[in-house]
Write a structure and sequence with these properties.
Elements lengths: L2 E5 L3 E2 L5 E8 L5 E7 L6 E7 L6 E2 L7 E6 L4 E6 L8 E8 L16 E2 L3 E5 L1
Parallel strand pairs: 2-11
Antiparallel strand pairs: 1-3, 3-8, 4-5, 4-9, 5-6, 7-8, 9-10, 9-11
Length: about 120
């Protein structure tokens, strides 16, 4: 049974930091990532990483502020977010693929078969 469970979303002030966590189970995922979706906007890729090399990849809007990491032993994926801005406000989703995802497809929603339910980040 494949499952992705996000946590760590919160309301923070601009300039603050948060760490999102994603617990994965049920399948050996080769590529994992974080996406976000703000109200009225399409879901967009934020950061992705491959377990066997390649990446990490970051959206231009978060480069230098966000860091994706993974703990393969614990099947966890993290998104460290700093210098948060109001435009970072969105629902953040963990995504995973059992197939390696390479550039330029690393931020395509269709590249990822498995998704979590999301965790809300609000920056004010």
């Amino acid at each position: 049974h494949v499952q992705l469970v996000e946590s760590g979303g919160d309301s923070v002030e601009a300039g603050g930091s948060l760490r999102l966590s994603c617990a994965t189970s049920g399948w050996p995922f080769l590529t994992v990532g974080w996406f976000r979706q703000a109200p009225g906007k399409e879901r967009e890729g934020v950061a992705t990483i491959n377990k066997r090399g390649g990446g990490p990849y970051y959206a231009d809007s978060v480069k230098g502020r966000f860091t994706i990491s993974q703990d393969n032993a614990e099947n966890m994926v993290y998104l460290h977010m700093s210098s948060l801005k109001s435009e970072d406000t969105a629902m953040y989703y963990c995504a995973a693929s059992s197939i390696l995802v390479h550039s330029p497809n690393v931020f395509r929603v269709a590249s990822f078969k498995y998704w979590g339910q999301g965790t809300q980040v609000t920056v004010s």
